[in-house]
Amino acid sequence: MPGMLKVEITRLDPENTADVPLPQTMSAGAAGSDVRASVEGEMIVAPGETVAVPTGFAIAVPQGYEAQVRPRSGLAMKHSIGIMNSPGTIDSDYRGEVKILLTNFGREPFVIRRGDRIAQIVVAPVMQVDWAEVDRLSDTERGEGGFGHTGV
Predict the structure, then answer these.
(1) Residue 46 neighbours by CB under 8 Å, 6+ apart
(2) How far is CA 79 from its chain centroid?
(3) 87 preceded by cis ω (within 30°)?
(4) Does residue 148 sit within a domain?
(5) Does residue 144 fall inside a structural domain?
(6) Is pTM, for the whole model, over 0.90?
(7) How many domains does the chain have?
(8) Tens-place pLDDT, residues 22-41
(9) Is residue 135 a part of any domain in this protein?
(10) Between the CA atoms of 45, 105, 85 and 29, what dihedral angle is there, to the nearest 10 degrees?
(11) In sequence order, what E strands does 1-152 have?
């Protein structure tokens, strides 16, 4: 497909993770690729607990991009499972294992099984910033209006 971005991916332990699919886009219009858990057996996430779920892979995000780790809407809606630092960022110079920081915001323990789809990754362009200190910022109509300044 023209215009597709190539992102290198490697299994960290191919002999023990071959049964866990690598990230997959599940429909033609999907923005993200589903990521699966590479846990041994089951991992139980207690209510209020945050765990780092292994995926068994590492990626090489191209310079000028980031990989954003986002929650899956079905897990959020049905089980109150989310990602504490959502979206989590995987920088272009990180080469370690991708781990998903899942949090159980619900009232019941949540069981993660090997191969479960636990998150999604979206690769997006980023701009590096050259911060320019000034004495005063330009005025806008909003000005300093903060959280909820426009009402309900």
Answers:
(1) 104, 109
(2) 18
(3) yes
(4) no
(5) no
(6) no
(7) 1
(8) 999 999 999 999 999 999 99
(9) no
(10) 90
(11) 8-11, 33-36, 42-45, 50-54, 57-60, 65-70, 81-83, 88-90, 99-104, 110-113, 117-125
Question: What CATH number is attached to the domain comprising 56?
Answer: 2.70.40.10
The rounded distance, in Å, linking the Cα atoms of 82 and 93 is 25
- C-alpha count within 13 angstroms, C-beta hemisphere, residue 19: 9
Domain that holds residue 105: 8-125
Phi-psi label, residue 143: left if phi above 0, alpha if psi -120 to 50, beta otherwise: left
Two tokens, residue 117:
């789809």
Residues present in the chain in total: 152
Q: What is the pLDDT of residues 53-68, one digit of tens each?
A: 999 999 999 999 999 9
For the chain, the maximum distance between any two Cα atoms, rounded to a whole number of angstroms, is 59
In a domain? residue 139: no
Instruction: State how far the Cα of 120 lies from the Cα of 111, in Å rounded to an integer.
Output: 18
